[in-house]
Design brief:
The chain is α+β, with helices and mostly antiparallel strands and 269 residues long. It has a single domain, classed as Sandwich (Immunoglobulin-like), CATH 2.60.40.10. 19% of the residues lie in helices and 35% in strands. The protein is built from four helices and 15 strands. The strands form four sheets. Strands 8, 11, 12, 14 and 15 form a five-stranded antiparallel beta sheet that branches. Strands 1-6-7-13 form a four-stranded antiparallel beta sheet, with helices on one face. Helix 2 links the parallel strand 2 and strand 3. It is globular.
């Protein structure tokens, strides 16, 4: 490693505090705006022939709307793996979350592709006017939580991701409030050899690779910090990773605030 790069890395590593309730000093940091940012969750699968157009649609959102408006996440489910193609990005916890969101919406039916915006299903997401209307509905709401994200380079093939959550008044004291931190990856390609998409090369963005355990939040104005040291698997491209975080109310089924931060620090190989 060049001397300058090594010195920069050491400075960043030294900036990590021992105290659990402070954020690391880092050049890679972002805070949420005063309005609510829309969390868009696409539940998809490489074993689903109707999913590739939805994957392509999700890939356009970041460029069309920007981080002050939308946090797009692609969550690959595993319940179609049995029909001939095992989705390499699928995780059982994403299938479980989709079922939970369905129950919050009052339905036990889940399917792919399915889109939730602010934890609420949006069946008409394909219609630009319907989607735009939902976004504006969310963005007109003043933020009920503040989120700050920071990322530093850890040792070889590891990132240190930190999310700080502060609940803002008025926040319902009876809510089941949680903070969640995720790591996502852009620019993924996958040649499919079996199943409904056999012979196709699929492309994905905003694919969730890591999903933290939820952090319980108190509505007393305190700042809550969630810090994760994430080891990067050999097939993850560090230059295309990003982190995102959001505050969810598991009782009302809504997102109080969301924020994303693309990778902006080098990770050594």
């Amino acid at each position: 490693m060049p001397v300058r790069a090594l010195a920069r890395w050491l400075l960043l590593a030294a900036a990590l505090p021992a105290a659990a309730q402070t954020l690391p000093t880092a050049s890679c940091q972002r805070s949420s705006p005063t309005h609510t940012v829309a969390l868009v969750e696409l539940y998809t699968s490489e074993g689903c022939s109707s999913c590739p157009p939805a994957d392509q649609w999700l890939s356009t959102l970041a460029a069309r709307y920007g981080p002050q408006q939308v946090v797009p996440l692609s969550l690959h489910v595993d319940y179609w793996d049995y029909i001939g193609w095992r989705d390499p990005f699928a995780q059982a916890c994403f299938s479980a979350r989709q079922r939970l969101l369905g129950l919050l919406a009052g339905t036990s039916t889940i399917y792919t592709p399915e889109v939730f915006v602010g934890m609420r299903e949006l069946r008409g997401w394909r219609d630009p006017r319907t989607f735009e209307r939902r976004l504006q509905e969310i963005q007109r709401q003043p933020a009920r939580a503040q989120v700050t994200l920071a990322m530093t380079a850890g040792s070889t093939r590891r990132i240190e991701a930190t999310a700080a959550f502060t609940l803002l008044a008025p926040v319902a004291a009876h809510g089941d409030l949680q903070g969640v931190l995720v790591v996502y990856e852009n620019g993924l390609t996958s040649p499919v050899h079996r199943g409904e998409n056999r012979g196709a090369t699929l492309r994905h963005d905003h694919v969730v690779r890591f999903w933290s355990a939820p952090l319980p939040l108190r509505g007393d104005g305190a700042r809550h910090v969630l810090r994760e040291s994430v080891n990067l698997a050999s097939d993850w491209n560090a230059d295309r990773l990003g982190i995102a975080a959001f505050v969810q109310d598991m009782r009302s089924g809504e997102v109080l605030q969301a924020l994303s931060l693309p990778a902006c620090l080098p990770v050594t190989n």
